[in-house]
Prior knowledge:
Blueprint: E1 2-6, E2 20-23, H1 30-40, E3 46-50, H2 53-58, E4 63-66, H3 73-77, E5 85-90, H4 93-97, E6 104-107, H5 124-134, E7 139-142, H6 150-155, E8 160-163, H7 165-168
Parallel strand pairs: 1-2, 1-8, 2-3, 3-4, 4-5, 5-6, 6-7, 7-8
Amino acid sequence: MIRCQITNGPDTPLRHDVDLIQVRERNLPARQLAEFVRRAMTAGPRILVNDRLDVALACSAAGVHLRSRSVSPKVVRRIVPPAFLITVACHDEREVLEAEGADFVLLAPVFRPISKVDSRPPLGIERLRIIIRQSPVPVIALGGITRENAPACIDAGAVGIAGISLFTQDPASAVTTQPFPC
Length: 182
């Protein structure tokens, strides 16, 4: 199971017990974002830079996370190194079907988000299951994921879980190496 922590500010405590960290610092200028990415890369997990392919490549990050209306993953795939990870934010079936070329889709919101306001209605487990069956790309569940509902997402076919609050709700454990339950 893939565990993807998403940052929510440059002071986000970075976990060592996750597989991916998505640096989601949209408001940082390129230089500050690059500095944050380089610091994050010392945490251990593979780092994805949110929608800034230029910064991801310049910092030798593991990959990029594309927003739902960003450049196509197929276009990005043609210009990046072979092992470069591409994830795409998706919110419905159409966006998932357009994510061909990505390594993973982050599908949200499965549940009502905890860390931010989202006007989109939650997909729920049954719709998550249906979209996963249609997806040409492995799906990581995002949005309102908790320790309690994460297993249901995996049972529905998600290859992993992602979140902000999920990985920061217990700041004392931010640097543990204990496996995440699921």
